[in-house]
Each structure stands twice: as structure tokens, then as C-alpha cells.
Amino acid sequence: MQTIKRAKTDKDARVIARLAAEIWRTHYTPIVGAAQVEYMLGNVQSYETIRGDIASGALHYFLFMDGKTPAGYFAVKPEPESVYLSKLYVHSNFRKKGFARSAFAHILQNYTAGKKYIHLMVHIRNPESIAFYEKLGFRITETQVNDIGQGFINEDHIMRLDLK
């Protein structure tokens, strides 16, 4: 049975960090290389960062569960006019089983009242994810190149779904 669980505890943060390591090493190494993946895991996707985000409420993290097995995670940040989908990652063993769509259903049901749009960033060399977001109605509004430190850059499309 598939469920979505709000991540609230240190244990949840550890589970998310473990999932991040598995997902990122498999999915993003061909896209950005192993060195950048390890840099991102040590910073943006680390247990300490995730734990801090959960504790401060900076991001609302959720775990996808397949029965008792963690299958992925997502994180949202409510903003005054919008909802920022900061993270959406599904483990390769659980892709194409509706988890990502259930994240969007959850966001639409719980976060969009009074909001104008949902936005996210996706790497420009991640065509499968771009195509998925486009199927949901997102469109590319701009492309950004950001220096993320240690000589690494992120090249991302900003995608937006206008809410009606």
C-alpha cells in the first residue's frame, strides 16, 4: 500500500538522507558526474541539512512509503503567492508506480489554497523528469546557471504550473 508520511523526526531525516544517497548516485552521476553528486550529498542532501530543514520548518518533507519500505521523498516550501517544490525523488525500484503523481495530488490538496502557481527547478540534462513535469502541465519559464561552490555549477530549468 502506497502512503505519504510527513517527515518530522531525526529518524525520518536519516531515512531521507539514505534515500538521497542511493537515488542521487544512481540517477545523477551520469548527468553531473560523481564528484558533483558527492558534493551535493554532502551539502544540500545531507542528514544535517535535512534535519535542520525539518526542525526549522524551512521545508516540509514527506516520505513515500510502499508498505513499510521508504520509496522516495519530496519537500515543499509554501511561499506567499506560490508553492516551491524543492525536491521530488523516487528510488529507481519504485519509479512509474504513481508516487510522483501522488506527491502532486498531495500538494494540490494541501498547499495551493490562495496560491497562483507551483514552481520547481530541474536539471537541463534530465529529460525524463522534464517530460514528466510537462505532462502535468508545467512549462519552462527560464534557465539558470548557478555556481554552487567548489567549482560546480547547476544548470536548471525553472518550471511553473499556473493554478486556476
Q: What is the CATH C level class, in words?
A: Alpha Beta
Can you tell me the number of structural domains? 1
| Number of helical segments with 4 or more residues | 6
Content of β-strand = 35-45%
Enter the CATH topology name: Aminopeptidase
Low-confidence runs of at least 5 consecutive residues: none
Helix content: 25-40%
CATH architecture: 3-Layer(aba) Sandwich
Kindly provide the radius of gyration, computed on alpha-carbon positions and rounded to a whole number of angstroms. Answer: 15 Å
The separation of the N and C termini measures 31 Å
Overall pLDDT metric: 96
Strand order of the largest sheet: 1-2-3-4-5-7-6
User: What can be said about the biggest beta sheet?
Assistant: 7 strands, mixed
Specify the overall morphology. globular
- What is the fourth-level CATH superfamily? Gcn5-related N-acetyltransferase (GNAT)
What's the order of the H and E elements? EHHHHEEEHEHEE
Tell me the structural class. alpha+beta
The number of E-state strands comes to: 7
Protein model, in words:
By secondary structure, this protein is of the alpha+beta class. The chain has a single domain (2-162), classed as Gcn5-related N-acetyltransferase (GNAT) (Aminopeptidase), CATH 3.40.630. The protein is built from 6 helices and 7 strands, in the order E-H-H-H-H-E-E-E-H-E-H-E-E. It has helices at 10-27, 29-32, 34-42, 47-56, 99-111, 127-135; strands at 2-6, 60-66, 69-78, 82-90, 117-123, 139-149, 152-162. Helix 1 crosses helix 4.
